[in-house]
Amino acid sequence: MAVRNSRRNRKSEYFFDYTLLFVVLFLLGFGLIMIYSASSYEASDKLGDAAYYLKKQATSSLLGLVAMFVVSRIPYHFWERFATLGYIVSAILIILVLTPLGMELNGARRWLNVGVSVQPAEIAKLGMILFLASLVCKMGKSIRLTKGFLVVLCVPVPICLMVWKITENLSSAIIIFGIAFLMLFVASPDYRKFIVIALIAVTGAALIVYIIANQDPGNAVGGFRGARILAWLDPESDPSDKGFQTLQALYAIGSGGIFGKGLGQSMQKLGFLPEQQNDMIFSIICEELGLFGAIAILLMFMLLIWRFMIIANNAPDLFGALLVVGVMGHFAIQVILNVAVVTNTIPNTGISLPFISYGGTSVLFLLIEVGLVLSVARGIQLKDL
To answer: Are 85 and 142 in contact (CB under 8 A)?
Structure first.
């Protein structure tokens, strides 16, 4: 009897996911190593500092870790009051790309120069997760009705269109809509609607590919994206232009074999593979660490997603669960699309590999998202049995 009373008097312990933290730190550290390995030659040749990209990414990673720790200590419901503001600010920042604050890099105008370069699309991903989680909770059971379902489905459309048309970043627009779609899928019990939407999307994509593949060469459609689809179908048809990056990535993957050439021994990074420290860094991983290294990294991402699922399933409430689902969707979609692009499974488009590709804004906001997940995890109570 005394033992039972002592157990009742004990305070409930709060959960902290050390496995998730370890995986994040491992991927961050591995990313810094690969960024240095992939970029040192180009940075030394063009910028006079072999560690230029490493230093910038390390700075962003440190800021991101501080932000992650701070966000993880703040109760996640605190951010619910800023959900609508986050959606509005995301839209405003995207529009500001058209102003003198807009910044063009590598032929794309996707950044804002506010003392440091900031990519509004990355902020929009976090803003969309917060806003949709709050909206779904407020709508309650009305989300099961067709009207409610369509309202939630249409919420990300304006942001997606702005990201696509203003910043010409179709890949980020797809990711934002994918995040919203997954959150709605988890919140809505009627899976038939999602099957219909998926069939329409797949049919539409197949029709577009068919039209572009069978077009009259003298009357090309689709612009540069149409050219990318043609290069995806047959990279060797345009080896010096649209198919160049894809072919070089495939050469890197193929030459790596099972165990790779060794860390730092890549040949494709020596001026052959464009964006080797950014979108195509997975091909450098394959070349230097081989199939073994590539699978090991994918397994780490799978472990990361699994930890997100565990936290989402045990979240104290729907808002917390949806926050984690949104973050999980962001990571999963981005990893799948990046690997698919590098291996030429889908047409080439600019998608970074979380924590590993070079990008200050990306790593900063990814770590903030992880902080949100850790905050939700802290709300899970481990009561004595």
So the answer is: no
- CB-based burial of residue 107 (10 Å sphere; 0-12 exposed, 13-18 middle, 19+ buried)? exposed
pLDDT digits (tens, 9 = 90+) for 195-248: 888 899 889 888 888 888 777 655 555 566 777 787 788 888 777 777 788 888
Please report, to the nearest 10 degrees, the dihedral formed by the alpha carbons of residues 171, 188, 310, 159 taken in order.
Answer: 30
- Interaxial angle between packed helices 281-313 and 360-378, expressed in degrees from 0 to 180 and rounded to the nearest 10: 20
Neighbour count for residue 127 (Cβ, 10 Å): 25
Between CA 80 and CA 134 the distance in angstroms is 6
Q: With contact defined as beta carbons under 8 Å apart, do 349 and 226 qualify?
A: no
- Nearest-angstrom CA–CA distance, 98 and 304: 36
Q: Which domain holds residue 45?
A: 12-382
Q: What span, in angstroms and rounded, lies between the C-alpha atoms of 300 and 108?
A: 32
> Which residue matches tokens 């047959």?
234
Domain-located, residue 249: yes
- The tens digit of pLDDT for each residue in 135-180 reads 999 988 888 888 888 888 899 999 999 999 898 888 899 999 999 9
Residue 327, φ and ψ in degrees, nearest 5: -65, -45
Residue with tokens 């039209």: 211
| Domain presence at residue 5 | no
What would the two tokens of residue 379 be?
């709300």
Name the maximum alpha-carbon separation found in the chain: 88
Number of domains in the chain: 1
Output the CA torsion sign for 135, 139, 142, 148: negative
Q: Is residue 159 part of a domain?
A: yes
pLDDT per position as a tens digit, 18-58: 899 999 999 999 999 999 999 998 888 888 888 999 999 99
Residue 322: name the closest of 172, 190, 184, 205 by CA.
184
Residues in the chain, total: 385
Asked whether residue 364 is domain-assigned, the answer is yes
